[in-house]
Amino acid sequence: MTQAADEQDGPAVGPDVLKDVTEARAAIRARRALVERRGPADAAVRDRQAEVRDAEAALRSARAHVGRLESWGPAGLLARVRGNRAARLAAARERLRAAEHEVDAAGSWVVAALRERAAIDADLHGTYDAEERLEEALRRAEDRVLDADSAAPSDVASELATIREDRAEVQAEHAAVESARRTAERAARALDTVVRRLLTVTNTPTHDTWPSSGAQSTMRKHVEVQRAGELMREAGPTLQRLQGELRRCRGGVVGQMGTLELDGTVMTGLVDGLLDTSSTDVVLGRRALAAHRQVGALRDDVRRCTNLLTSRSRELDVRLAALAARREELLFP
Hints:
The longest helix is centred in the N-terminal third of the chain and has 56 residues.
């Protein structure tokens, strides 16, 4: 929408709502400009702080050099023997004064950079709810158009009503998809940790005898397997939650997943087999390798699920943006 479009009155909207919409849009534009400034301001603070650290290091070196020349240590004695101690000490003190000045200047630069960043943050805080204010104003405009006593054309009101229903439906699906996506990311990270732990077990040398290195190998494997079992148990509830959230997702996300199995009993069975303390070193290694393959395959499935959910979320974002744009066109032609 252009600035001129902002100043036009829509169908039965009213000047008060139009004023709120215009102010909210101005706040959103200001917020975007502030966000663009925030990154460079933060980088400037880091650069100035690095300059302070460098200046302080130079100051410490200059002080140490003056101290060595003033003392009766090797540097001071050598300067006295050569007869140039006074000149060298004067030069060192001059460098010390210059280093002190650099520290003071760098400190003032840091303060200035911090003040600039704080000013940006304060302005950002004043616009944090700009999107919510715009949505609230647009909702009031929409309510006035959809009111039974509104003088708005019937085709405009009908299309707005359809858009409101579509937006509610898409927003509900978007919320479900985003929730499932976050759960899938947590599940993938948990499974990846289990896979790495099991890989440690499978990479440990295998011995078929108990004494000496065989005993150490088996004990190491049992420790790693014990931890892998704990991690697998922790991942179980997350997988079950993901399975429930996927059922609530619409569209082709679940259909594209095919035969994704997230049954927690699979994980429980793997854990029970791994934690069998009577297992020999060879048997334990074989079980860990089998579990590594199975959990790795499940992790890959969950990652694929995450990618599908991410794609679906982007599609819904595009759909919501199109519906919002059409709603504004109808409210403010």
